[in-house]
From TrEMBL:
It comes from the Bacteria. Residues 112-295 form the Peptidase M24 domain. This is AIG2 family protein. Residues 6-100 form the Gamma-glutamylcyclotransferase AIG2-like domain. Pfam families: GGACT (PF06094), Peptidase_M24 (PF00557). InterPro entries: AIG2-like_dom, Creatinase/aminopeptidase-like, GGCT-like, GGCT-like_sf, Pept_M24.
């Protein structure tokens, strides 16, 4: 298997350009980029692929197998453009170069599409009544995984799949809790990170099985506190990760809950593998130690996008709940 596939719809298809750039002619296969169209880039002399979302749109071109050195040479040749991952008509996953403005539009659309797919998945979880008393957490997790495969052909998840119930809902993400059978009066949450077209979703939702008013109040407070945190983020352009964490903590306490988790309330999100690779860097998290403004760019010069996650717990009642999704988009 080649190290990389690169889809070209422009001058990299020309043998003379390939010889000048790579020292040889490349073997290519005709393919197409669905959901894109060609638009003028700067002037009419050059056109760039622009994501349209229309199923009948497609940009014809050629896909090439490249070594890492070849890809670096292509990056140099395409300086001024950004390389993004795409799915081709053939089903192959490849890189393609797009204009910088188009690239950010592409990333936003892909992140929102990934989240929409995850929301549809969790809606179907409810419709099929998969969160049910008498079922084990592990069995429910496996059924949600299988449902994602059925609905979207998704087989990859960027973090461990989590279904927790009862006292397990108090514990932070890093803990590997023992499998537990759900009871009729339980509260449970699911936290999944499916990958769609090489972009990550990260969604958490809470479910109450019985009539316990405290558990229902917590389930109702989760999205309310999320939206309050989102408004606070929107209203403070220079907000840092530490600032937003403090606000979420204050909102939780005002509602009568404590923040659970491992000390952070969200993280960067993007293409897979995402910025979690910088897990040792506090700047990747909505956390007390992150004094960096959240609105900025990452090391690759891309706009930072964030997941906000709300983990509320009632230690005395021995239960908790969880809610997460995109903070700055949608």
């Amino acid at each position: 298997m080649p190290d990389h596939l690169l889809f070209s719809y422009g001058t990299l298809q020309l043998p003379r350009v390939q010889v000048a750039r790579f020292g040889r002619e490349l073997d290519g296969t005709p393919d197409a980029l669905p959901g894109f169209r060609l638009d003028a880039a700067g002037d009419d002399a050059h056109q760039a692929a622009v994501q349209s979302g229309a199923p009948d749109d497609a940009v014809e071109g050629t896909v090439f197998a490249l070594s890492p050195a070849d890809l670096a040479a292509a990056d140099e040749f395409e300086a001024g453009y950004l390389r993004v991952p795409v799915a081709l008509r053939s089903g192959a996953k490849a890189w393609v170069y797009v204009e910088t403005a188009t690239a950010e539009d592409f990333r936003v659309r892909q992140l929102l599409d990934a989240q929409a797919n995850a929301v549809a998945l969790f809606d179907e979880v409810v419709a099929r009544k998969l969160i049910a008393a008498g079922e084990s957490e592990r069995a429910i997790s496996d059924r949600i995984r299988d449902l994602a495969n059925e609905m979207f052909g998704t087989t990859r998840h960027w973090h461990k799949r989590i279904v927790r119930s009862g006292p397990n809902t108090l514990l932070p993400y890093d803990d590997n809790t023992p499998d537990r059978i759900l009871r009729h009066d339980d509260i449970a949450f699911a936290d999944f990170g499916p990958i769609f077209a090489d972009f990550e979703a990260d969604l958490g939702r809470t479910y109450v099985l019985g009539d316990d008013p405290a558990k229902h109040r917590l389930a109702a407070d989760l999205p309310r506190i999320f939206e309050a945190g989102r408004r606070h983020f929107a209203d403070h352009p220079a907000i840092t990760g530490a600032d937003l964490h403090a606000e979420i903590d204050a909102l939780a306490r005002a509602a009568g809950w404590q923040l659970g988790g491992t000390g952070f309330a969200g993280h960067l999100v993007g293409e897979f593998p995402h910025e979690v690779m910088d897990a040792d860097k506090i700047q990747s998290y909505i956390a007390p130690g992150n004094t960096t403004p959240m609105r900025g760019t990452d090391r690759a010069g891309r706009v930072c996008h964030w997941i906000l996650e709300i983990h509320l717990v009632d230690p005395a009642g021995e239960f908790g709940g969880f809610y997460e999704q995109l903070l700055d988009l949608g």
